[in-house]
Structures are given as C-alpha cells and as structure tokens.
Amino acid sequence: MRKVYFDHASTTPIHPKVVEAMLPYLKEHFGNPLSLHSFGEGPREAVEEARAKVAALIGVRPDEIYFTASGSEANNMAVKGIALMNRQKGRHLVVSAIEHQSVLNATQTLEKLGFEVTRVPVDKYGLVNPDDVVAAIRDDTTLVSVMHANNEIGTIEPVAEIARAVKEKRKGIYLHTDAVATVGTLPVDVKELGVDLLSLAGNQFYGPKGAGALFIKKGTRLMPLIDGGIQERGRRAGTEDVPAIVGLGVAAELAQENLAERAARLIPLRDRLIERLTTEIDRVYLTGHPALRLPGHVSICVEFIEGESMLLLLNMQGIAASSGSTCTSRALKASHVLMAIGVETALAQGSLVFTLGESNTGEDVDYVAEVLPSIVERLRQMSPLYSKS
Amino acid sequence: MRKVYFDHASTTPIHPKVVEAMLPYLKEHFGNPLSLHSFGEGPREAVEEARAKVAALIGVRPDEIYFTASGSEANNMAVKGIALMNRQKGRHLVVSAIEHQSVLNATQTLEKLGFEVTRVPVDKYGLVNPDDVVAAIRDDTTLVSVMHANNEIGTIEPVAEIARAVKEKRKGIYLHTDAVATVGTLPVDVKELGVDLLSLAGNQFYGPKGAGALFIKKGTRLMPLIDGGIQERGRRAGTEDVPAIVGLGVAAELAQENLAERAARLIPLRDRLIERLTTEIDRVYLTGHPALRLPGHVSICVEFIEGESMLLLLNMQGIAASSGSTCTSRALKASHVLMAIGVETALAQGSLVFTLGESNTGEDVDYVAEVLPSIVERLRQMSPLYSKS
User: Fold this and answer.
1) Contact A101 B329 (CB under 8 A)
2) Of A162, A374, B171, B306, which residue has the fewest beta carbons closer than 10 angstroms?
3) Which residues between 110 and 149 in chain B have a beta carbon less than 8 angstroms from any beta carbon of chain A?
4) Final residue of a domain: which of A254, A280, A299?
C-alpha cells in the first residue's frame, strides 16, 4: 500500500545525515561533557559545535542558546522562568488565545501561584492584532508571549510588529515567541523579530526528538525550570543529551542550507492540496490564513464528520494525518485554536490537518485528494447530522 | 596508551544492545506516539514496553512510571511538584545536607517562593540518621527527600528506615528518594523502601543520556514541571523521546538480569582499589562509609594536593576519574558533601572519585594503583603546603 506521511507537524522523520552524526555519541564518544578528562572532550566540543549551528540558524550568539529536551520544555522554561524571576516587579502576563498547550497550561499553573493572565483573542484567520496586545498591557505586565506560527491552523503571526509595539508602549516587558513551528521551516531572524526569548524543537525540522532549545537574549534573567548542576551555564541542569544535541545541530545546519528551497517546493504542493480539497469536496473549509501560512500546512474542517473517523479511514489507505493538534487529539477535546477563530463546535469536530514535508511529492497530494472524497462520502452517509441537513 | 574509564558515576558507556534497540526509532519508526495513525503505533507500543521494563526493575506498576529527560529533571519534578501542589497544606520540606544539587537547588528555588527547608546533617560517613529526619518534621512539612546513595562518597542511606520513621511520626508526608546512583546498580524495591516518589536515570546503568524516570505512587498528586500536552498522562509534556525511552527500557531489562552479578564482580575490585590506595600512598583518606557503599565506588581525599591537578595527570596516563561530583567539578567549589561529612576545606580540595563499571578489570585497578602514587608524589613536591608540613 502507498504510504503518505502528511503529519510533519507532529514530528518529522530524522534526516539520515542527522542519525549518522548522532551515532558516534551513542557509541564510542559516550563521555559526559562536564568531565575533566579525555572522554569528556569530544562530547563537550560536539555540544558547543551544535550550539553554534543552532545559533547561526536564528542569527544569535551561541551563548544565547540553551538546550532543552523539547519545545514544550523551552516554552515552560521561558514563561515560568521569566514570570517567577520578575514576580516582585509584577504578576501579569499576556499571551494569545491560540498558543500551544505548553504555553497556555504554563500560564494556568502560574495563575494557581498568584499570577494573572490576559489571553488576547485572534481574528477569524487566527491572526493576533498588535493593538490588542498593547491594549492588554498593564503596569504589572512582565511577559508577552505570542507564537510565531500556529501548529494547528498554520497561520504566521506578526511577531515583529507585536514586539515593536510592546517595546514602544513600555520598555522592560519581555517578549517570548514559541517558534517551534517555524524554525527550520521558514527563515527566522531573532533580530528582525525583536524578541528576548524564542523556543524551537529539533523534531520539527528533521532533527531528533529529545532536543529543543531556548534562545535567551544576553542579560535576560530567569528562574531555571530544572535546577541542579552547572550544565547550560547553570540554567538547565541534567547531563546533556549529547547525541540528541548533536543531531539538533546537524538538523539546524541542513535547514539553513535548504530553507528557501524547502519552502519553495512545499508551497505549491500545499496550495494544490488546499485547492483540490476545498473545491472537490462539498462543505470543506480552510482554517487559518490562506496566504500568511506555513509552507507545508493544510488545515480544513469537514462538515458533518468527526476528524477521528476520517483519520482512521485515511490511515487504512496509508495516509497519516492529524486532527487538531497531536497533543490534544487523543484527549478528544474541541481544539482551543478552532474555538478561538470562531469555528462552531460541531464543525470543529471535523478538523483535519495535513502537514507536508521533504519527502512528499505531487503524487502524494493527488493521492490524498483522490482518497479523501470517498471517505467523506462514506462517513457522511453514516452521519445522522448529514442526513438531517 | 592504556585507557581506563573509572568515571561511571558521571555517565556510563551505552550497552551495545541498548544502541541496537534504539536505532529503529531513530530511523524508520520515527512517528509520534500520540498520533492516531500507523506511524505512531510502533513508537507508542515501544514506549509502553519500556515503561513496563523500568517498572519491573523497581517493583512498581507501569502506570506509576513517568519518563523524564534526566535524573535531575525527575528530582525537580518530584520536589517542586509535591511542594507546589501541597502549598496550602504546608510549606516546609526536609532534605539531607548531602542531596544531589538538583534536589538542593530545587529547594533553594522553593525558598525564594516562600517555602522553608530543613537540611538534616549527616555523620562522618555521610549517613543520615532517621531520628534526625523525624526531629526535623513540623506540622507544615509536606515532603521528605533523602537520596538512596550519594554520588560523591558512595554511602548508601537507610531510606527504608527513614520512610518508616517518618510515616510513623505522621501520615501524609510524602517521601521522595533520589535513587539515581542505585537503580540499575543495586537491587531497588520501592515497596521495601516505602517511598512515594523515586528518581532514576538511564545513563547511570548503561542506558542512554536523555532518559530518566520518576516513580510516582498511584494516587499521589503533584504539579507538573513541564505543562502542555497529554503525554505521560498529562504530567510531563513534550513529544516523548522514543529512542531514549526505548534505550532506557532495554538498559533496565539488562540491569534486572545482571544486577547481582554486576555488584558481586565490582565489590572486590572496589575494595582492592581502596586497600591499595589508602595503604600504598601516605595521607590518603577514604570518604564515605567503608561497607554501606555503592559496589564500584571509591572516593578518597589526598592531602596537600588539588583534585583537579590529579585528574589532569591521571588523564595524561589514560585514566578517567572525577573530583567531587561531575556537576560541580567544573565550578571549582568545595564539595557540599565533603563539607557535610566534616572534611576540612583544604583536604576536600584533594578529592578523587573512581567509579568502576562493567568493562573494568583487576588490571585496571592495578594500573591506577600503580600510576597514582607517582602522580601524588610529583604534585606534592610542587605543593607549598606539603613542603611546609
């Protein structure tokens, strides 16, 4: 059976060059980078080389990169770390309503600890309006966190405008962006964005799982999430996961070399899939912005059907896709992102997300476009909602 | 040159069977365990299989095991998670003075957030007295955390007695033990220990870096350290590092098969090294308990010399060792553990830690025992302290 992996937003395959680079650190170069002997040297140098590569990808200094085990950890480290460090200055945070769960749930934890959080709404495309962010700022606001692109609907946010507007309104507020969906997929230049903190994850751009990073602008203080040893300059304890870090470095290097080409190849595939699905199937609606959109990201809602049923039938045809975000799809909750852009609860149940990547071709697109209509038809025939309409 | 790796407490080599088991999850089985399609199935099953193996190693239920990226993360998750969840009940914690930095520094962070911490002293062997722990308990104590064995001096703590004494004194206090140094090295049975939470790390027993776990007794509530998706039943967000988790599982399985044999082989090697170093070199003192001691653990203080100089000269002879703990050795601070057992600051500078493992032989022991005396002599001749004595 044909296999089509259209779920790159959940996790990407690992590039063979990444795996190859990791192997020596799983085998002979097993030492601890902190060790004061020859076994530590190679791993230590490898970690710093990876740090330089990740820094280069987003245009920052290597000593502004802090490795984590995931994008979620980086998001928690940023949001909780800044909030807790600045708790004497103020206890108010501003985030968008469509942030990733790792940001939103971190703010819920902070609420339990006495913080207040304003969740700025978005428009029907999922766009955050910089004016709304500025309007949410209070005298006791210490952090604004708005994601660079949304993982569920693909919309790219005006982070640079938001950062500029916030800094104009008041200096001293920290800007964080969750760039897990963009780093390695789109050019990301921290200086252009104007943020103080930025999260990224290797498994979003052909790197390994278990490797993420947080950019922290030099001079920015935060409370560590994981206290302990002096790893990562005392900001994130625990023996460095050298193989994963090395893999992240190589993935960053490969991304930097191929960014423009990767996006240029994916955009027409994305647009062809959107075009075919929304015209060839009745009552299918694109979610997210049609143009300000991640290169390989196709998200739709199919009326009268549940996303999970479609996923199961697609899977039987060899097609891997998502519904809502991977992190919530097994929780069977309506996506907070779709609610925030005003999709009705019933329609939101019919969410499907196809995220394309390196190995996908036009044939994959056509295969999915040919398979989905019959799946939709079959499910609608079984749907009491559809027959009633 | 002969290479002798005597730094297993820093990190162990990864067992070839562990690497072999990880490879498919770095290559073809790259999917996200949360995905509702075939690419997620294999990884999902592999993670649950690993969970069962880790659970079996310490005698608990698989659904009581929560994967983390390190022992330090597990320690932070336990200490901060219990303290913050129970903050309405009380804000007092009891730990030993010789806990790993990840526990001690986590308690310092909690102090900044309004908690109070009692650090129970130890005797000259590094032993915690259960009576001292009980005496430290207050009405507002919510957590007691005492490590199972100390990584710097090898002393094994009477955790079962401590747990029993604490629970007798007052029910409802949570018991955590950092068992990073013992799990996979000594038989660890959670029921015998009587603890509610226990931390372990794969890279201490021939598993990969990037994989640790926290045992949380069923029914125990804590505040997550990393908020976000529903991974690890909502208690630790972030895409599971499937290859590392699989590796941890295989390492746990191998440990369970070979535990008794591993310890039986290491103890005589350990004792031979202790015997030779303390008798053949003048003014060398064993630190930690002579008998209640980790199987492969040799820690000494060499008078009139700095540990770091010895490490460098040992390294030139192909011998890899540590001074104090790896996490602090680069920080050039006197070890808090040696201070706690009453070693004078000057003598503590001459700390050397040899930790033996699977691949080591009697020849390695003899090589080190033959090389160290001349290194000590050479350094002492350069030492103003020694010439003055």
Assistant:
1) no
2) B171
3) 112-113
4) A254
